[in-house]
Design a protein that fits this description.
- This protein is α+β, with helices and mostly antiparallel strands.
- It has a single domain, classed as GMP Synthetase, Chain A, domain 3.
- It contains five helices and three strands; from the N terminus they run αββααβαα.
- The chain has a three-stranded mixed beta sheet with strand order 1-2-3.
- Helix 1 crosses helix 3.
- The radius of gyration is 21 Å and the shape is elongated.
- It starts with 5 loop residues before the first helix and ends with a helix.
C-alpha cells in the first residue's frame, strides 16, 4: 500500500507531463518562459489545477489565457501518456508563491537595513 493518496501521485504525474507537453509540443511564440510548479488534483480525479510561473510577469494574464485555451489539447496529450480511465479537466493558474516569497524577502531586508542604521533621535538626548 502506498503511503499517500492516489490523487497526490496523479498530481505529480500530471505536473511532469504537462511541463513536458508545454515545453515540447506547444509552439506559441508569446508563451515565453513558463514553468509548471505544481498540480493539484481533486480526490475524484475529475479536475486538476495546474500552477505555472512565468518569467515576464506583465504578460502573465495573456499567457494564462493561452494556456487555458490549449487545455483541451494538453488533456488529449495527457490521455495518450497516462494510463487513466478518465483524464482530469485542466485549469491553469498563476503560482503567486514566488512573488509572495520575494515580497517577504524584501520586507525582511527592509527590517534588517532599519536595524543597522542608528536612530538619530537617540543621539540628540
Amino acid at each position: 500500500m502506498h503511503p499517500y493518496k492516489r490523487s497526490s501521485r496523479v498530481s505529480e504525474s500530471i505536473r511532469k507531463e504537462v511541463a513536458d507537453i508545454i515545453m515540447n509540443k506547444i509552439k506559441h511564440k508569446y508563451l515565453g518562459f513558463v514553468t509548471v510548479t505544481d498540480a493539484k488534483t481533486s480526490d475524484d480525479l475529475r479536475h486538476a489545477t495546474v500552477y505555472v510561473s512565468v518569467l515576464n510577469v506583465e504578460d502573465s494574464e495573456k499567457i494564462l489565457k493561452k494556456l487555458n485555451a490549449t487545455a483541451s489539447f494538453i488533456k488529449g496529450e495527457l490521455g495518450r501518456r497516462l494510463k487513466m480511465r478518465c483524464v482530469p479537466t485542466l485549469m491553469f493558474r498563476i503560482d503567486e508563491s514566488i512573488q509572495y516569497g520575494m515580497k517577504i524577502d524584501k520586507l525582511l531586508d527592509d527590517i534588517k537595513s532599519e536595524r543597522s542604521t542608528p536612530d538619530t533621535d537617540e543621539d540628540l538626548f
